[in-house]
Design a protein that fits this description.
Length: 257
Amino acid sequence: MTPAQHGAAVAAETAAFVAAVTASDLSTPVPTCPGWTLADVAQHVGSVQRWFSELLRQRIQQPPTSREVDLRLPERAGDLPDWLTAGAAEAAEVFAATDPDAPMWAWGVDQHARFWVRRMLFETLVHRADAEIALGLSPRINHAMAVDGIDEFLTNLPFASSFAPLTAQLRAPDRTIRFSCTDGDGEGDGDWLVGLRPDGFALVADRAPSRTADATVQGTASDLLLLLYGRGDRRSDAFRLLGDPDLLDHWFAHSAF
């Protein structure tokens, strides 16, 4: 996906989130976000969008020292859907005024403005799925978007230890885990090989299917994306697990984002 597609998808995902929660009981618990209600998730998504939009406006060049931003939170929970819509509209204006290739500080690999647009997309998408799950709906995620989301997650996860400290324990004596989409095109689309080393982990450049992994998780792109974000059960019928189960236990116990 391109930065322009990421920006358009932020608007679409926010609209889907709003559609899910409008006229719903916002005190409904969200099982995939323990302790949170739909109102909490809505407030989180809107706050993150406004925070990222402010980072983009400022074109920050170093880690921010403050997260203060004028959230303009509504007084009534029932006004949260309209607040989300307004925030997404503001984000779209910021995207339109921003060169995606502009250099910026980012906590992940890509030190450009486009990092934050892509990050905003998947933050919104995953929480849209949370809201739908809470309401008894089955989240639907476009294949291409799910593949892009998996790639974004696995590319940046090695740099997330400042807010996901357990990831620092994702180490092993040169072991590999493959995540493979069962609905890919067979030409390398939807296949990732993660290498765990004694000093850390990262995606392996050589991910040829002929390269055997120590453990493998196979599933559709949509299911894999939600699984990686802790929104799925790898032992369900949606997935096929191969190889070392202890290595998979280690991964999923320490990769929470």
